[in-house]
Write a structure and sequence with these properties.
The complex is a heterodimer of chains A (194) and B (113). Chain A is mostly helical. Chain A is built from nine helices and no strands. Chain A folds into two domains: 1-104, Rna Polymerase Sigma Factor, Chain: A (Orthogonal Bundle), CATH 1.10.1740.10; 111-194, Orthogonal Bundle (Arc Repressor Mutant, subunit A), CATH 1.10.10. In chain A, α4 (82-100) packs across α8. The N and C termini of chain A lie far apart (46 Å). Chain B has a domain at 15-85. In chain B, 69% of the residues lie in helices and 0% in strands. Chain B has helices at residues 13-23, 29-79, 89-94, 103-112. The chains are: A mainly alpha (194), B mainly alpha (113). The A-B interface holds A 30, 33-34, 37-38, 41-42, 45-46, 49-50, 55, 58-59, 62-63, 66-67, 70-71, 126, 129-131, 133-134, 137, 148-149, 151-153, 155, 157-158, 173-174, 176-177, 180-181, 183-184, 187-188 and B 1, 4, 6-9, 11-12, 14-16, 18-26, 29, 32-33, 35-37, 39-41, 43.
């Protein structure tokens, strides 16, 4: 039986493994690229959705980012972790798409929902909470949204998020803090209503 | 949910979980992966087409140049006289001299010796 790996060691092994996958993908191995896409599809789609709101737009942006990453794979420095490199491309793709978006528009915010409106029935509770959180996220500035999702949902460190968003680490800390304060208020209201 | 400290370096699991559920695209993850891979395959084919298209003109120009050069060389070779028309070394050595020595000079030389 194998010994459980300490997190740092496990991360190092995962990074080495990803560097190998990238090398194979660069050499034209479609299966290796498939593994990378599968591994990062979830986080890429969530980050894109945090920026764009609309799931279809988010999927389009995540797909564009994956394809763009495939083209740029040779530029990736294999000594660095792959995730932040890919997510920077995802963040850029989502931001570009949001700027270009003219046909689809963000639905107007229901003030009653974010300010603690009437509680929906229990069968729709989970859906309604998700809807509230999405709307609350939509209220936040874009980089604040991405920062809190990358930190609290995806588990990236402040330093890694700084690399992804091209921001100073201190700014990332501040963005995460302010986003959490807003979202926590919303969750607390939700609990009190319950 | 734990109390929030300014610049807390630890992820908040409750908030993280709620956000994950809110942003989760659903169960169609495999379909998304398949879609990306299909597009990647298309892009790869398209990129090869683009490479071939980019090289088509220079390729045709180079082929024309090679054909012209080859034609020129072949033409020159055909215009030359055939190799048999030139005297070979053997011919020169075996052939009788154009001006054979005078018989009397030769006789005189023999008599003197």
């Amino acid at each position: 039986m194998t010994e459980p790996q300490p997190p740092r060691e496990a991360a190092r092994i995962a990074q080495e493994e990803e560097a190998g996958l990238v090398a194979r993908a660069v050499a034209g191995d479609r299966a290796a690229f498939g593994v990378l896409v599968e591994r990062y599809a979830g986080v890429a789609r969530r980050v894109a959705r945090a920026v764009l709101g609309n799931p279809a737009d988010a999927d389009d942006a995540a797909q564009d980012a994956m394809l763009s990453a495939l083209v740029k794979l040779e530029q990736y420095d294999r000594r660095r972790p792959f995730g932040p490199w890919l997510l920077r491309i995802v963040a850029n793709a989502a931001t570009d798409r949001r700027r270009r978006r003219t046909v689809r528009h963000v639905e107007p915010l229901d003030v009653g929902l974010t300010a603690g409106g009437p509680r929906p029935d229990t069968t729709a509770e989970r859906w309604a909470l998700g809807e509230r959180l999405r709307q609350a996220l939509a209220e936040l500035p874009e980089r604040r949204r991405m920062a809190v999702v990358l930190f609290d949902v995806e588990g990236y460190s402040h330093a890694e998020i700084a690399l992804i968003l091209k921001l100073p680490e201190g700014t990332v800390r501040s963005e995460v803090f302010h986003a959490r304060r807003r979202l926590r208020t919303l969750l607390a209201d939700w609990k009190e209503e319950g | 949910m734990k109390d929030l400290q300014p610049f807390d370096h630890r992820p908040d699991p409750v908030l993280g979980d709620a956000l994950r559920r809110a942003l989760d695209p659903g169960v169609d993850g495999a379909a998304f992966v398949a879609r990306v891979l299909a597009r990647a395959a298309q892009e790869r084919v398209a990129s090869w087409d683009a490479v071939l298209a980019r090289w088509a003109r220079p390729g045709v120009a180079a082929a024309v140049l090679v054909a012209v050069a080859a034609g020129f060389l072949l033409g020159r070779a055909a215009a030359r006289p055939p190799a048999g028309a030139r005297p070979t070394v053997t011919d020169v050595l075996i052939a009788p001299p154009a001006h054979p020595g005078e018989v009397d000079v030769v006789l005189a030389s023999v008599i003197e010796n």
